[in-house]
Give the backbone structure.
Amino acid sequence: MKKIREVMLVAVAAISMIGAACTKKVAIRPSPPAAPAASAPSTPARAATPVRSNPMPTQTATAPAPRYPNAATRARIDELLARIEDAYFDYNKHTLRPDAINALQTDSTELRDILKDFPDYKLTIQGNCDERGSAEYNLALGDARAKAAKDYLVQVGIPGDQLSIISYGKDRPVCQEHDEACWQKNRRIHIVAMTASR
């Protein structure tokens, strides 16, 4: 029994030594000396200049990009809009015909590139109809025609939030005759720049 007790004491002592060897020693640092009492300095003190090893590059403030085009760019947009022909529709239809797509395609790439740079500049697509049918029906049809043109222009990359639509139905004819040749000229969409509200 005495032998077992001695073996246990030796084991406990060995474990204690191993544990003491594994513990991390914390170095005790002496506290910094107290600052001397404030007294009038005999020599003028120099301000300490901090030294930076990696100085930060200075950033120059840049003006925000304009959200509305200048007069020259607006003139170019007006020129493009004048060249984009009205897109025409078949009687009682609002789907884009191949000739309407060609009319919208003309200069729409350059127009898209300009408009993307000026998010506050907006265009309006006007939907129009011929004189046949009720006013309510033609307003709905003109709206559908303007929407079809807008969908196409968005598909080519013109931002949709810069395009609004309006229907004039049969209220703004470009031709006053009462025949098919004249009615065809009135079944159209027309694109204009919105007036700036600034």
Notes: The longest helix spans residues 135-156. The chain has a mean pLDDT of 79. The chain is about 40% helix and 10% strand. The CA atoms of residues 140 and 169 lie 7 Å apart.
